[in-house]
Amino acid sequence: MSLTLEQVQRIAHLARIEISESEAITTQGHLNGIFELIEQMQAVDTRGVEPMAHAQEVSQRLREDVVSETDRRAAYQAVAPEIEAGLYLVPKVIE
């Protein structure tokens, strides 16, 4: 697939981008190069290749899921202007 100069100008118009004739020609070359690369990639036989989550073989170091901080809820609510049943009360801002 390749784009014509008219298609590039139409895309620029739809995107509300003002480009000159020379910019449109340059952009056409860049876009057609991208499409050629995509066609080359689609031509590669990928049967039997497992999908990867990352381009490199990396693993994430995991830590144990343990509580590392103390419960300070009472201290935070002690300085709150208004609370009710353990919830912070805030003024209504949308009517």
Q: Concise description?
A:
The protein is mostly helical. The protein has helices at about 5-15, 20-45, 75-80, and strands at about 85, 85-90.
Provide tags for this entry.
3 helices; mainly alpha; single chain; 41% helix; two-stranded antiparallel sheet; 95 residues; Histone, subunit A
Mean pLDDT: 92
Taking the sheet with the most strands, its summary is:
2 strands, antiparallel
Radius of gyration: 29 Å
Q: What's the N-to-C terminus distance?
A: 54 Å
Shape: elongated
Question: SSE order, as H and E?
Answer: HHHEE
Helical segment tally? 3
Number of strands: 2
Q: Please state how the strands of the largest beta sheet are arranged side by side.
A: 1-2
Low-confidence stretches: none
Looking at CATH, which topology of the domain at 5-43 would you report?
Histone, subunit A
In CATH, what is the class of the domain at 5-43?
Mainly Alpha
- What structural class is derived from the secondary structure elements? mainly alpha
Share of helix, binned: 40-55%
- Proportion of β residues? under 5%
Second-tier CATH architecture of the domain at 5-43:
Orthogonal Bundle
